[in-house]
Amino acid sequence: MNKYVKRYFIDALSGMAQGLFASLLIGTIIKTLGQQLLRLGTNPVFQFLVDAGNFATDGHVVGAAMAIGIGFAMSVPALVLFSLVAVGSAANVTGGAGGPLAVLVIAVIAAECGSFVSKKTKVDIIVTPLVTIIVGALLTVLTAKYIGMAAASVGNIIVWATKLHPFVMGIIISVVVGVVLTLPISSAAICAALGLVGLAGGAAVAGCSAQMVGFAILSFRENRWSGLLSQGLGTSMLQMPNIVKNPKIWIPPTLASAITGPIATCLFKLEMNGAAVSSGMGTCGLVGQIGVIAGWFSPSDAALKHGAVAISPTFFDWLGLVLICFILPGVLSWAFGLLLRKIGWIKEGDLTLAD
Questions:
Q1: Which of 94, 146, 272, 344 has a CA between 20 and 30 Å from the CA of residue 20?
Q2: Nearest to 271 by CA among 204, 198, 322
């Protein structure tokens, strides 16, 4: 059972997230940069950036990238991997707003079917892609629309509930998504699959940032600057072996996320209106923050459906972003960590990262 959980819920999700980064996410950043530069005046280079971004964010391209990421993470045979291009493209477009979840489910099944027949016949070059694409296309026609609708509905409920109850939902989303980020599961892929944007996306960014910055500051005395960078700009997942040994070390950043989440939703009204995948990235490569900024100037299609509009950010918006993502997580986690060290729940060396 653990083998399949890792293969389908850890490896496949991580691969899907990487596919999203290499298409939708980077494409959105490039396009937003070009759009902002065009405000300075018409220039073919600036227009090229917009066009390049549009190429990368096309639904067919994004679907193909996700499916390839999934197949690569599952270590499928080459012919299966290449055939997943068509499967992912079809599933993402047919799945609509919930396309990423449709791609995940359909690509995994198609990849396994293709892998099952791979190299079993003398005409492998025909049989393997044939099976992979036919299975993927059939599942797309029969299920992608409904999988996408289900994922979009769940995401819409979360976004709606956060608008209705920003304090409570701010805590829940921030804590849950932050915890998922630290676990060996892709929080980015989950946020993308559910389309978490708006205030819900802002709470997710707060929670992920609290885990990453929180652990980076909390463990600074053990790991110094290398640990600060690897966790603060890399991933808090590095602490999982230590969490297994002493779960109490997870308390400070989790409490920090429970505080920064509602501050984000209620006080600063922090919204993630960029690509939904950015909601689950936190401070990893500053992708979460770049997503928020991109959403200010050029809201994603998912955000536009929820009423988002482009804005000119004020000093208050910038202050909220910096406080929520960097300052408060660090200060709160340090303070909670200091208390837990004094009462003996966290001991010297509990947070030391393995070499």
A1: 146
A2: 198
φ, ψ at 283 (rounded to 5°): -100, 10
Extract the tokens encoding 335: 């303070």
Yes or no: say if 211 and 179 are a contact pair by the CB < 8 Å rule.
Answer: yes
Q: What are 99-126's pLDDT values in tens digits?
A: 899 999 999 999 999 999 999 999 999 9
pLDDT in tens, 42-86: 889 999 999 999 999 899 999 999 999 999 999 999 999 999 999
Radius of gyration of the chain (CA): 21
Q: Which tokens go with 193?
A: 């699959």
- Secondary structure, 3-state, the chain: CHHHHHHHHHHHHHHHHHHHHHHHHHHHHHHHHHHHHHCCCCCHHHHHHHHHHHHHHCHHHHHHHHHHHHHHHCCCCHHHHHHHHHHHHHHHHHHHHHHHHHHHHHHHHHHHHHHHHCCCCCCHHHHHHHHHHHHHHHHHHHHHHHHHHHHHHHHHHHHHHHHHCHHHHHHHHHHHHHHHHHCCCCHHHHHHHHCCCHHHHHHHHHHHHHHHHHHHHHCHHHHHHHHHHHHHCCCHHHHHHHHHHCHHHHHHHHHHHHHHHHHHHHHCCCCECCCHHHHHCCCHHHHHHHHHHHHHHCCCHHHHHCCCCCCCCCHHHHHHHHHHHHHHHHHHHHHHHHHHHHCCCCCCCCCCCCC
Q: In this structure, what token pair is assigned to residue 126?
A: 């025909």
CA triplet 333, 334, 336: central angle to 5 degrees?
65
- pTM of structure: 0.81
Q: What angle do CA 17, 22, 28 make, to 5 degrees?
A: 100
